[in-house]
Amino acid sequence: MSPADVDPTALQRLDRLGGPEFVVRIIDIFLEESPRKLAATREALAAGDGAGVAYAAHSLISSAANLGAGELCELARRVEREATDGRLDAIPPVLAELAAVYDRVHTHLQAEHERWRER
């Protein structure tokens, strides 16, 4: 797990907005919804549905940005951009990189979830 996977200042910003319970809630939403968003991106790509890929990737962008997962956010933007531009053949390597970063972010946020729950 890299410290760069999630910017702690993003979690601190969420804390200032709504307290530790709010941080836990936002992390919960990410942990629950992001696997479906990633799966939807893969499914749309397998179906050759560029609009579906772009839509699913876009939904990951805001989730990742809210939690300070900058690299994940940027990779999702790349997937969205390639899909929007009709370059579906360019997406698989980016999506593979996104999946690896996603796994690290997910693990990091599970640990953060526990830490923030204890506050």
Task: Describe the overall structure.
There is one protein chain. This protein is mostly helical and 119 residues long. The chain has a single domain, classed as Up-down Bundle (Four Helix Bundle (Hemerythrin (Met), subunit A)). It has four helices and no strands. The protein has helices at 8-46, 50-66, 70-84, 91-117. Helix 2 (50-66) runs antiparallel to helix 3 (70-84) and helix 3 packs antiparallel against helix 4. It is elongated and about 45 Å long. It starts with 7 loop residues before the first helix and ends with a helix.
List the helices and strands and how they pair.
Layout: H1 8-46, H2 50-66, H3 70-84, H4 91-117
Helix pairs in contact: 1-2, 1-4, 2-3, 3-4
CATH T-level fold name: Four Helix Bundle (Hemerythrin (Met), subunit A)
Overall geometry comes to elongated
Query: Mind telling me the CATH superfamily name?
Result: HPT domain
The topology string of helices and strands comes to: HHHH
How large is the radius of gyration?
A: 15 Å
Helical fraction:
over 70%
CATH class: Mainly Alpha
The amount of beta strand, in percent, is under 5%
